Amino acid sequence: MQAFVYTAAPARIVFGADSSVGVAGEIRRLGLSRALVLSTHQQKGDAEALAARLGPLAAGVFSDATMHTPVEVTKRAVDVYRAAGADCVVSLGGGSTTGLGKAIALRTDATQIVIPTTYAGSEVTPILGQTENGVKTTMRGPEILPEVVIYDAELTLGLPVAISMTSGLNAMAHAAEALYAQDRNPIVSLMAMEGLRAMVEALPGVSVQPQDIKARETALYGAWLCGTVLGAVGMSLHHKLCHTLGGSLDLPHAETHAVLLPHTVAYVEEAVPDLLAPLAALVGGRAGAGLYDFAARLGAPVSLAALGVRPENLDPMAELATANPYWCPRPIEKTAIRALLQRAFEGARPE
Ligand code: NAD
C-alpha cells in the first residue's frame, strides 16, 4: 500500500431532514448568543424566516452574499457583524453564502454554523476563494473551516432541478479528482467512492421528482462526502481547468464543472485507468464516457458552447491552463489540453 498521511477536519456534522430546527440549540451549545444570518438576495426570505425563528439569538440578516466572495461585500458584512454585536454567523445557502461566512470568520474569528442548500461542498473545506479588483485568490487554513454544518434536505427541495444537476456534478468532480490525488489515502478514497455512489443513485431521482425527500437526502449525504474529500486532498487537472475558464471567461461555477468533468476524467483515465476503475464500474463503460452519458441523461449542459464560450477563447485557455506546471497523473501537454477543450466546446462524447 502507498504510504499516506490523513488529517481529519474537526467539524461537527448534524444531518437529517428538519435538523435546521436545531440551529438555536447549536448556537447555545457553542456558548454563543448573537448570530448574523447570511444569504444571497435570492434566499433572503428564507434567511429572514430563520432569523425570526431564532428570536433574540439572531443579531440580524445580511443578504448580499455573491458568487466569488468579493472583498468589498465582505467588508460591508464585517461592519454589519461588528455593529450588531454578533458572535457567530449562520450561513444559509450555497457556496457563495458559505464563502462570505468564511471570509467574515477570517477577519473576526466568528464561529460559523453552515446550513448548505446546494451540493458545492464548501461547508466542509478549509478553503476560501476571494476576489478583489477582478483577481481571485485562494487560501486555506484551519480558521476558515466552519465549526458546525447542519444538513437539512428539506431546505434543498426548492433548489431548481437544473442547478441541482450541475451542483451534483460539481460535487462528483471533487470526488473523482480525490481518487487520483497525489496525496490520496484509503479513507479519502472510501469517502470519495461513497460520495460518487450516493450522487449516481440520487441525481436521476431528483431530476424527475425534485420534491422526493429521500433522493434529496441521499444527494446531500453525497455532497457532504464529496466536499470532505475536496478539503482533504489536493485537486488536479479538472479543478485547474475550471478555475482557469471560470475566472477568465466569467463562466458559471457549477455548470463549468459539469461540462468539463467527463473530459478531464477521460484525459486522466488514459494514464491511471486502475485508479478510476471503481468510478468506471459505477457509471458503466469507461469513467469519462460514462460520466458524459450520466450528465446527458440528467439534462445537464454538455458543451462549453452552451455556456457562452467562443471558439477564439480555446487557444488562450489552453495556453493559460498549461502555463504553470501542476501535478497531474498524466503529463499536462498543451496540444492534448487544446484537443480536450475542443471536445468540451463541441460537447463531443469522450471515447
Ligand atoms: P451559489 O451559492 O452561488 O448558489 C447559486 C444560486 O442558487 C444562488 O442564487 C442561490 O441563492 C441559489 N440557491 C442556493 N440554494 C438554493 C435553494 N435550496 N433553493 C433555491 N435557490 C437556492 O452556488 P454554488 O454552486 O453552491 O457555489 C458556488 C460558489 O462556491 C463559487 O464561488 C465557488 O467558487 C464556491 N465554492 C467554494 C468551495 C470551497 O471549498 N471554498 C467549494 C465549492 C464551491
From TrEMBL:
Molecular function GO terms recorded: alcohol dehydrogenase (NAD+) activity; maleylacetate reductase activity; metal ion binding
Stretches assigned to the Fe-containing alcohol dehydrogenase-like C-terminal domain: 165-345
Transmembrane portions of the chain: none
Origin: domain of life: Bacteria
Residue ranges annotated for the Alcohol dehydrogenase iron-type/glycerol dehydrogenase GldA domain, each copy included: 10-152
Keyword hit for Oxidoreductase: yes
Swiss-Prot/TrEMBL keywords: NAD, Oxidoreductase
Family label: Belongs to the iron-containing alcohol dehydrogenase family.
Annotated protein name in UniProt: Maleylacetate reductase
The organism of origin for this protein: Rhizobium oryzihabitans
